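Continuing the batch. This is chain 6 of the set; chains 1 through 5 are on the previous pages. Same settings as before, nothing changed between runs. Recording input and output for traceability.
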Amino acid sequence: MAQRKMLFKIVIVGDGGVGKSTMIQRLTTGQFIPQKITIGTDLATYDIDIDNINIRLQIWDFAGERRFRLFLPNYSRGATGCLLCYDITRRTSFDSLDEWFNIVNENAINPVFILVGEKLDLADIRRSVKNEHAEELKEKYNLDYFFETSSKSGENNKMLFETLTRSILKKRDMI
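Output for chain 6:
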């Protein structure tokens, strides 16, 4: 039996410097490579096999600076998944998630949303966003999941993307 192939568009949003690009680098290369700030958008792909379905994730890494935000509605169209990212050591990055969520939610058709707290490796020394606050936001917007990840250690990185992909397949009645 031939393996089915699919393409899912994923948008990754959040304020500048929260670790979005570094998370993608960890996923695609397996290495922690500190990144410079993204200008506009970057595009990466990642292939994953789930239940005999080969899925290519087309990952759109959207710049977090306010001057680029007016482009996000167009980039969100057709997205099947969205990672709402914040830095667990920077409360302001968490506080701006309402705006990020609303832009994607208004322009994509029923995507899977996952809330992602980044820089988990700094939790013990610099955490400023408690898990309870993230859980409250997850409930407020009925988000599908909440993860904390570390691009430095790789903790929860691949699991995050596997969970996202499985959730998209399930939401679309494909598994």
